[in-house]
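Milestone M4 deliverable, item 7.
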Amino acid sequence: MADSKVLVTGATGFIAGHCINELLRHGYAVRGTVRNLKTADIAHLQAIAQHTGGSLEFVEASLDADAGWTQAVDGCSDVWHLASPVPANVPKDENELIRPAVDGTLRVLRAAAAGGTVRRVVMTSSTDAIVYGHRQADQVRTEADWSNVEQADPYPKSKVYAEKAAWEFVADQPLELVTISPGLVLGPLLRQEQKTSMEVVRMLLAHQVPAVPRLSFAVVDVRDVATAHRLAMETPKAAGNRYICADESMWMGDIAAVLRAEFGPRGYRLPTRTLPYWLMWISARFDKTIRMALSNYGVPVLVSADKAKQELGWTPRPAKESIMAAGESLIQYGIVPRHGRDKEANPVPAGDTAA
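Output delivered:
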């Protein structure tokens, strides 16, 4: 299969960049979709292709239009569908997230089914489609669980509706479908960009929070998410399955402690106090990002990745390694201001996978 061509949607995304790197390093030809070829930031991806000697091309296609998708899937044996809207804050209308997530997924799947060459679609979902709105908050969740949309915020809703729409579509199609559900995706950036999933580390390292709210995350490394996508594509029995890809559950205070141990001696101030709920509630009245997290205060995110480990042979890195890589990357690319001895350091070159 290493001579096959794989379509990766949303090619400029954080996870997508690492997925493209994973594919190229394993001998696959890659076609990536971007919204606009003239304005897309693809230099880091082209650098990876040059470094690996792999075949990489791009095509214009957007989740909100039919144009381009027939061309995108043409000649591809597999599709990795990663493109999905991710909010920086709570939208006024939840359909601003839900509609493009569902409609975009169905556009990709319809094109894949009609093209006649696509064997399998590996779709990126999220643990957000699994863990929210359950009465028993301390129960470990598995792929058998779905978030309760009646008690979920717009983003988890969008992931639930998009994934369920995908499963319903392939039920009477010749396409194989596998879904990957990552937790909080951390790890090295491939270019200078601020990703929503890295905000926890960025805010802590930049000392933008005076105290740490009691929020829980199931951490996973972006490089391991990319590996999971490849294994889901290559493993015959993976067809028709959901896989959680998130291992160690950590409180935000635990993440801060990991960062403090490494970056504290280098001049970075990390918060040590716990932010009480009442103070977070007040802050949420003025900050939409905080408002998104308020309902999750004190609720542990507990998931099991045993299925991915056993059926795919997936082995995730320790969460500490992912947190450290995220911190280093944010500093190297200048997203977090340098302190102490780090002021003399130079940023990593574009396209460095830090693998």
